[in-house]
Design brief:
The chain contains three helices and five strands; from the N terminus they run E-E-E-H-E-E-H-H. It has 143 residues and is an alpha+beta fold. The protein is globular, with a radius of gyration of 18 Å.
Length: 143
Amino acid sequence: MSTITAELTEGYAVTLGTSSGHTWAADEPTEAGGTDTGPNPYELLLGALAACTTITVSMYAQRKGWSIDGIEVSYDHDRIHVDDCADCEAHHRGYIDRIVSQITIRGDLDETQRKRLTQVAASCPVHKTLDKGVHLEDHVSFA
């Protein structure tokens, strides 16, 4: 189980921490009323997805003994109208969130290896979680 804590510090600035001792910041850009002291929540989400994809592809290639010279991953998030989405299911209405990837894998790889790494790139644990959907349980208390 992974646990992250968040504490509001000033304005919209948030200090994030893990049970293993890592800390970092999140905030909103100045145009949204924040102080831009860290990435916004969607950037953090995309960062988690990009890191997971990069690590998963690298681990897989390493286990197979395939030579990878580098991996670059970029994700973009936006909201589009469902009518503009050719891959969307019929039960969606209105606007949906869309995440688009650009993954570049450098190395001397044959066609079979390239095809497999393309599949692996879409199967990192964070990608699978987002693709399946998430059940959220909210517990709010007041002190």
